């Protein structure tokens, strides 16, 4: 049996795999699938679950990895993500890591395929299926909620310069689950830069400031709300953007937002 990754590469199950993960959310998923013992390397941003990742070697960040340190760890598999990891870095690692597993979940339900891909390649299929059952239950609970009023919401991930997200992102599709859409901005990239204007403010119902990658706080939210005169809320970036294991909590987080008093 083979399992196909986001680039169409087929992978054969390997019960003895030595894994380096460059994707924090997938590091967490691998641990939850019982594979922490096979993780030989992780990024410094792979912080969950804290008790398990503490003993796994750090090999740099998601983009600035230490190639020689990874080489010495002798991994058989490297897990990467199209959004989070740089192509030149992955290509350099591919020169000595036999198997590169590429991921690219773009919507909440893509987590099912992601869990099955990890479980299939690394021989944790039963645990992956149990996780998928939990996901389906959380997703069904979210879908059962009464539909709220649609809203156009600007989701901010950075300032200086201000940056947002396009509709073609995991975060935007999470928001779409509760009827919120993101405005189209002039920059055609997936993570566009923008400037505040009267025209932009008029097109939105409110703003969400994410706690990552920029560390927005309630102080930022209060100041921006006074500046633009529209509702501004701080949201947990992990809950909105981390796929894998964190998506279960993410779906519950969405459900709580949908059930809360009218935000926008």
TrEMBL record:
User: Keywords, A to Z?
Assistant: Signal
Matching entries from Pfam families are given as:
Peripla_BP_2
Q: Does the keyword Signal apply?
A: yes
Signal peptide: which range, if any?
A: none
Q: Where is the Fe/B12 periplasmic-binding domain?
A: 18-264
**Is Signal found in the keyword set?**
yes
Taxonomically, the superkingdom here is Bacteria
Q: Which PANTHER family match?
A: MOLYBDATE-BINDING PROTEIN MOLA, VITAMIN B12-BINDING PROTEIN
Q: What is this protein called?
A: ABC transporter substrate-binding protein
| Organism field | Massilia mucilaginosa
């Amino acid at each position: 049996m083979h399992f196909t990754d986001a680039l169409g590469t087929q992978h054969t199950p390997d019960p003895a795999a030595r894994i380096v993960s460059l994707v924090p959310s997938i590091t967490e998923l691998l641990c939850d699938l019982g594979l922490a013992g096979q993780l030989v390397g992780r990024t410094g941003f792979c912080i969950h679950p804290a008790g398990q990742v503490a003993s796994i070697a750090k090999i740099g960040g998601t983009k600035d990895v230490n190639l020689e340190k990874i080489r010495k760890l002798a991994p058989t598999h490297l897990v990467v993500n199209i959004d989070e990891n740089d192509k030149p870095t992955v290509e350099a690692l591919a020169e000595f890591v036999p198997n590169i597993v590429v991921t690219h979940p773009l919507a909440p339900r893509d987590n099912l395929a992601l869990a099955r891909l990890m479980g299939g390649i690394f021989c944790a299929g039963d645990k992956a299926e149990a996780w998928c059952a939990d996901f389906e239950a959380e997703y069904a609970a979210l879908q059962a909620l009464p539909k709220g009023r649609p809203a156009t919401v600007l989701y901010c991930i950075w300032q200086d310069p201000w940056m947002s997200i396009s509709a073609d992102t995991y975060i935007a599709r999470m928001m779409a689950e509760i009827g919120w859409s993101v405005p189209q901005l002039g920059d055609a990239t997936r993570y566009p830069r923008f400037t505040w204007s009267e025209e932009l403010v008029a097109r939105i119902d409110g703003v969400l400031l994410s706690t990552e990658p920029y560390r927005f706080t309630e102080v930022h939210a209060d100041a921006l709300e006074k500046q633009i005169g529209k509702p501004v809320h701080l949201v947990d970036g992990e809950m909105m953007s981390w796929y894998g294991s964190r998506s279960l909590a993410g779906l519950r987080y969405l459900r709580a937002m949908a059930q809360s008093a009218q935000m926008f």
